[in-house]
Model the fold of this input.
Amino acid sequence: MVDGLIAATEIGLVALVGVLALRMASLARQEPLMAQATGRLTPPSQQPPWPPRGRVDTRSTVAATPHDTELRTQLLILAGLQDGDCRKHGLVLTAAPETVRAYSAAWLYGAGCALSSKPVRHSEALAGIVARIVSRKMDLRQPDALQTISTLTSSSALLACYRAGLEGAEHWRKHQFVPARHSLYHAITSNAFI
Done:
């Protein structure tokens, strides 16, 4: 009886391994199709400007690419770290004047440019990601954050905060910390009367 139970268990395990192998093979065949549907298989210059007949263009309906998700995660972590640093020095960004929160939007946009790939830098997608994070973390309305990002060159203070965010994020990516001279707190206190 025990021998029969062992044999039945072995047969069941072999069947499960077979099913697993079939499933892996079917997923491997589908992966190039899914990569092509999201636009990751061919560069944008080689993709047709319209979807082929009978197919729906899924590039615009994909929620987020892996790079977008990674970038959003890195920016959330960096924003949280910088918010904590500001609080440690007695600056509560959510209670700060709107100008100070605009400086933090410029700093985070600079950080986003440093952390993103070249095609994403200075894009509307990056500005949208930064505006959503600033809205959640620093209590600046998204339209105001987008306005700040679009008018960076109108103010030397905004440009200085952008540059500090750019350099701070580059350093953070390599060394996992932001030096004080490139921190959000330093950028704000150097450019605003608090």
Summary: Confidence is low (pLDDT under 50) at residues 33-63.
